[in-house]
Fold:
Amino acid sequence: MSPSSGIPQFRAERLRTKREARSWSCEQLAVMAGITAGTIRNAEAGTSRPSPRVVRALAAALGCPVDELAPLQGAVTLRGLRARQGLTQRDVGMAVGVSTGMVSKVENGRHGVKSVSRWAAVYGVSIRRWTAAWETSREMQRERIRARRSPDRGTQ
Structure:
C-alpha cells in the first residue's frame, strides 16, 4: 500500500523511536496526542503519512520539534512552511496582526516584515529557516517576473 497524502518528509522510524524511548504504547501516545492509535500504527508502518495537524500533535505529545519527525529538505518556501503547520493565510494574519493580503505578499517575497521573530514563531521555525524560506519565495517571484518579459523587450 502506498502512503497517502500528508507531510512527505515524515519519518516513520523517528516516530517509533521516540515513542519507544518513552516506553509508550501506540494507545498511550494516542491519548497524549489526542488522535487515534490506528493513526499512529499507520504512520509507523508507512501506510499513511500524517497531516500537518497530526504531526504537530505527535511532536507536542513527544516534546520534540516537528522537524524531528519530519525534517525539512531542500529549498522551502513560506507557503510550504505554512502548509506544513496546517495553517491558512488567515491564521497567520490573525497571529501576526496583518491582513491575509499582506500574508500573501510576504509569502510571495513581495514584502518584507519588521518582526521576523514573530513571523518565524507562527510558522513554527527558527528565524534563520524563516528568512531562508522568504528569500526562496522572493527569488521564485523574481523568476516569474523574468519569465514574463518578452524577448523583444530586452533585459532593461
